Amino acid sequence: QKEICAMAHYVMLLKFTDQGIRKVKDTTKRAAAAAKIAGKMGVKVTNTYWTMGRYDLVLVADASDDETVAAVSIKLGSLGNVSIETLRAFSAREMDGILKKVG
What we know:
single chain
């Protein structure tokens, strides 16, 4: 029987670079292209939000491991339109498992 690997959850906080804001009218097209690139690399972008405040966009994504999502962050950042801060997110179920280890 094949073992099922649970996907890890991530929140990616993006800020436009000078290049990205100069070409802001293409932001929705770039977001769709970024999700496609991420998918090919093994990361599923489940939601994309444009936000007000400290960050310009928030991506919610699932990946098999931290290394895979880190590779996507580097790839997307290398395109020059955004800088990215990636946060590992835990569901309530995952947090309960973590808390059991605390004792």
